[in-house]
Structures are given as structure tokens and as C-alpha cells.
Amino acid sequence: MRASKPDAPPYVARVENLETDRKGRVSVRVRWYYRPEEASCGRQPFHGAKELLLSDHYDNQSAKTIEGKCIVHPFKEYTKLEDVGAEDYYSRFEYNASTKEITPDRISVYCKCEMPYNPDDLMIQCDGCKDWFHPVCVKMTTAQIKQLSNYRCDQCSS
To answer: Which member of 16, 32, 75, 141 has the greatest number of CB atoms within 10 A?
Structure first.
């Protein structure tokens, strides 16, 4: 949906209902998605560039504010996409706009750094323990990781 400022990214909402009034004007009832930086927690390192938080904030808008269609995938579906297009986003959290709480408040962490998974960041899986690691956390470059046919973490290789 069209942002109020011309240089701002469009707002993202889920259309819940379409209504036409007596004068023929079409309005949409929407449930807003927030970008992490718009929520109380702010954008964290594990938030991907295309991550959105489904909120409990509903609103009625003129259908004329709709700019186009996008797809907000569940997180697991998004991570399996072969080609991520400009219209693809994902959501793994819900945001309560009035209490400023995010659910779930705990998610799985990976790597030595114990960060949640960010699909924008390359990770490598250990062939031994099956844990996932960021290249920088195992003192390797992305180029080095891409050259490997298999990998064993320090713990599994000793």
C-alpha cells in the first residue's frame, strides 16, 4: 500500500475484506505488517531484509491506496524458495502493537554466536554434528566456504 512519504517503501498489509459503500467507493479492511525497525525491538542482526512482523493492527483504507500484490510467506516456506522475487517477503513473528510484545519470544539459535537464522546470511552445516555456522564464526570467508565439498567443525574434527 502506498506510503505517506514518496521516498518511503510501500506499506505491507494483508487484505481481510473488501467493502463497497453506497456511492460505489471501495475500501479494504487490512491487517498491517510492520517492518522490524517500526516495532519496539527495532531491527536486529537476525532480521532479514525481507522480514515482516504480522501485527494485530487492523485498519480500513481506500482501495485506491493499493499499489500492488506481494506474497508474505511463512518463514520455512521462504527459506525453501529457489528464486526470491521483489514481491516475496516472509514473517515468523507476530507483533502486538498496543503492548509492543513480539511472539514467539524465543526461537532456535545457531552457530557459535547463538543467533537466530537470517536467510540473507550464508551458513555452512557440519557434516558431523549437523550444526550450522556462519563463515566468519569459523574463521573462513564466503569464498572459502563455497569451495568446500564437505565441512567438519572444530569439535567434530578433533
So the answer is: 32
| 14 CB burial (10 A radius; 0-12, 13-18, 19+) | middle
- Kindly report, residue by residue over 59-96, the tens digit of the pLDDT: 999 999 999 999 999 999 999 999 999 999 999 999 99
CB 93 within 8 A of CB 72: no
Cβ-Cβ contacts under 8 Å for 83 (sequence gap 6 or more): none
3-state secondary structure of 110: strand
Quick: pLDDT tens for 13-24: 999 999 999 999
Q: For residue 44, what is its C-alpha cell?
A: 536486529
In a 3-state reduction of DSSP, which class is residue 26? strand
Bridge partners of 17, per DSSP, are: 29
Residue given cell 507476530 in the structure block: 94
**Contacts with 58 (C-beta within 8 Å, 6 or more apart), sequence order:** 16, 29, 30, 31, 32
